[in-house]
Amino acid sequence: MNSYKATPEIEVLSSHFPIPGLGYLPINAFVLKAKEPVLIDTGIGIDSGEFMKALESIIDPKDIRWVWLTHDDSDHTGNIQDVLKAAPNARLVVNSLAAMRMSLGWEVPMQRCFFINPGESISVGDRKLTAVRPPIFDNPTTQGM
Ligand SMILES: [Fe+2]
């Protein structure tokens, strides 16, 4: 895990996974220090201890108000259960299909989910985040912001 400040308001939690013969899969999560702080994605599970330590070095998880999941691939959801446990004040911003697919593997707290589709927005206090469908993507639940 390597974390760094991309802008005064955006911290990056960066990792990578070696793929023999091909190179590396980059794995990034982000903390947006909005008035209502947002964690974007939760890394990959094999980084679990390091991911949580890096996250806690950036923000007290109890201050996180939103966890925005871009899609339900395992390199984005790897620490989601630990994050939701450590961030009891956060709601999970997620596409409903992603929530349903994840619920096949663990008990997704539906009452904490804020379901969002491309074109819809949330307010995080000092700005509005709008879900967008990127021009290309690798998962049917993908939404950026
Ligand atoms: Fe993906």
CATH-assigned homologous superfamily: Ribonuclease Z/Hydroxyacylglutathione hydrolase-like
CATH topology: Metallo-beta-lactamase, Chain A
The bound ligands are:
fe (ii) ion
Total strands: 9
Overall 3D shape = globular
The gyration radius over C-alpha positions equals 14 Å
Percentage of helical residues? 10-25%
Per DSSP, the total helix count is 4
Low-pLDDT stretches: none
Summed over residues and divided by their number, the pLDDT gives a mean of: 96
Strand order of the largest sheet: 1-2-3-4-5-6-7
SSE run: EEEEHEHHEHEEE
Structural class: alpha/beta
**Assembly of the depicted chains:** single chain
Give the CATH class: Alpha Beta
Please describe the biggest sheet, giving its number of strands, its sense, and whether it closes into a barrel: 7 strands, mixed
CATH architecture verdict: 4-Layer Sandwich
